[in-house]
Design a protein that fits this description.
Layout: H1 4-8, H2 41-52, H3 68-71, E1 74-79, E2 87-91, H4 99-103, H5 106-109, H6 118-135
Antiparallel strand pairs: 1-2
């Protein structure tokens, strides 16, 4: 994962502009929030899966300590959450606000569509974003499109991620059973 210097930049002397340190008897600066109120669990699991590149060998990135998955609100379904072991994770039910299951489904928040070529894909995306802004009153600053390159597994269901992993050169570590 990128360092604070890579994420936030450096001054003219090469020192990080932002430094996050947790020191004893001081307010915490680097806080992990295991409960996510902004994103539904299936969207969060998808974002983690795509962001880490779980279907790529090697992964795009991985936490330096696999136990960080637990701190982020995941629970082990099966396997061993350690390096060189297979594991299946899902969002811990305590980390999922109850209103998501009551108000939304994965189909409400995740949309997978294939296109014949990149030009068709970009045209459809532009039209869909325009429609969402004009008809659904989506604020343009609160919108993110992620276009994974799914050549190796085109039938992949992004709201249900489950693969084997050794967490140094893994293919995945996440699953969402919330439907």
């Amino acid at each position: 994962m990128p360092s604070a210097a890579e994420l936030f930049g450096t001054d003219r002397h090469g020192r990080a502009l932002v430094s996050l340190r947790n020191e004893e008897d001081q307010p915490q600066q680097d806080i992990v929030l295991p409960r996510c109120y902004r994103n539904p669990p299936w969207t969060l699991v998808t974002a983690h899966g795509v962001g880490f590149g779980i279907n790529r060998i090697p992964l795009v990135q991985m936490f330096p300590d696999p136990s960080l998955w637990r701190r982020l609100g995941y629970a082990t379904v099966s396997g061993d959450l350690s390096y060189d072991k297979d594991v299946i994770l899902e969002r811990n039910q305590k980390s999922i606000p109850e209103f998501f299951a009551r108000l939304l489904t994965p189909e409400d928040t995740l949309y997978v569509k294939t296109h014949e070529n990149a030009s068709d894909q970009y045209r459809w995306m532009a039209e869909e974003i325009k429609r969402l802004i004009e008809e659904d009153e989506l604020d343009h600053s609160e919108h993110l499109d992620r276009n994974p390159k799914c050549e190796t597994e085109p039938q992949h269901k992004w709201h249900h991620l489950e693969c084997s992993a050794d967490c140094r050169t893994p293919r995945t570590c996440a699953r969402s059973d919330v439907v």
